[in-house]
Amino acid sequence: MTLRLEMDGPGGAGIARLLIDRADKRNAFTLAMWQQLPDLLAQAAANPQVRVLVVKSAHGGAFCAGADIVELLANKDDAPWLAANQQAINRAQFDLTRFPLPTVAMVEGDCVGG
Fold first, then answer.
1. Distance (Å, whole) CA 40 – CA 18
2. How is the beta sheet containing 3-7 ordered, strand by strand?
3. pLDDT for 65-80, tens place per residue?
4. Helix or strand or coil: residue 27?
5. Which is it for strands 3-7 and 15-20: parallel, antiparallel or unpaired?
6. pTM of this prediction?
């Protein structure tokens, strides 16, 4: 798994949880994850019962280890891949910063960039 969205059902507290679920790689982000994020944000924003978004690790221990360095190194000479990766990162970060509801990062464990 990579990312998944869990939302309270009817009568719930109105919490959407965006879970980073890649424990074997300490939740390091891949291109596919960056590409997936805007769609999950749109799903949460479109649900009228959602009042807050919580971004957290699905497993604890590590919130996020940054970028998947193995994937970056494997594609370091692939200009189209690098451009697509940067475009996906930019879009995901843009959409996250403009998410229309309160957003909480529940950081438990390591949170690093790379």
1. 8
2. 3-7, 15-20, 52-57, 103-106
3. 999 999 999 999 999 9
4. coil
5. antiparallel
6. 0.92
